[in-house]
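Worked Example 4.2. Consider the chain below.
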Amino acid sequence: MVHGKPRHPESQGSAERLNCDVKDILTAWLGDNDSTDWPTELRFVQFQKNSGYHSGIKQSPFKALFGRDAQVGLRSASLSNEILERLVSEDDLITVWQNGHNGEIGK
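Applying the procedure from the previous section yields the following structure tokens:
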């Protein structure tokens, strides 16, 4: 919950701390990955922040909100193992999604 007037972020301590954390993580991420494309890289920082352990709530913010740990990769997608086994390229994945997950690859 944010308290204070919207034009006075100084009175919103938790929002200011979050902004500082995100700035620090993003700066480190950009340096580690030799990138200047911060809008794209911000997604990775957001995932890192939301899936990391938070001592105040004794779990990650993602788990607090959704009741499960965050998952990454195709195995966490709603695709069957049969479809995942047949994927060879990104084009195959795009085709599967466009065909409504029915497994039609390469057609």
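Residues 13-32 form the longest helix (20 residues). The radius of gyration is 19 Å. Compare this with Example 4.1 before moving on.
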